[in-house]
């Protein structure tokens, strides 16, 4: 079955398992803080590799000591789907190894 937008209660349920993440204007988002700009850039690269693996891509904003991840699903008109939740879970799993918080 094709991916479908999640209902508001489904999004709340998924957010309960994704500490630090929130939904803003139909985007699943989190900002990570890192110890240096290079550490932040390395996190961006790691996330980019996972995104190509999943064939699902967030917008990544590289700051001085920060990375902001913002994702929705283009193919359903920019709503939050299970694909976004899966990417958020993958990012949550890999971020601590970068010292991200
Ligand atoms: C052809 C390719 O599978 C699609 O364009 C993928 C790529 N990455 C994507 N990323 C996101 N966030 N939403 C999509 O609908 C999407 N579609």
Automatic annotation (TrEMBL):
Enzyme class (EC, first level): lyase
Reaction(s) catalysed (UniProt annotation): (4aS,6R)-4a-hydroxy-L-erythro-5,6,7,8-tetrahydrobiopterin = (6R)-L-erythro-6,7-dihydrobiopterin + H2O
Keywords: Lyase
Any one GO molecular-function label of the UniProt entry: 4-alpha-hydroxytetrahydrobiopterin dehydratase activity
BP-aspect Gene Ontology terms: tetrahydrobiopterin biosynthetic process
Keyword Transcription attached: no
Domain of life of the source: Bacteria
Coiled-coil intervals: none
Record carries keyword Endoplasmic reticulum: no
EC number of the protein: 4.2.1.96
Any matching Pfam family: Pterin_4a
Family, similarity comment: Belongs to the pterin-4-alpha-carbinolamine dehydratase family.
Protein name per the record: Putative pterin-4-alpha-carbinolamine dehydratase
Species this chain originates from: Streptomyces glaucescens
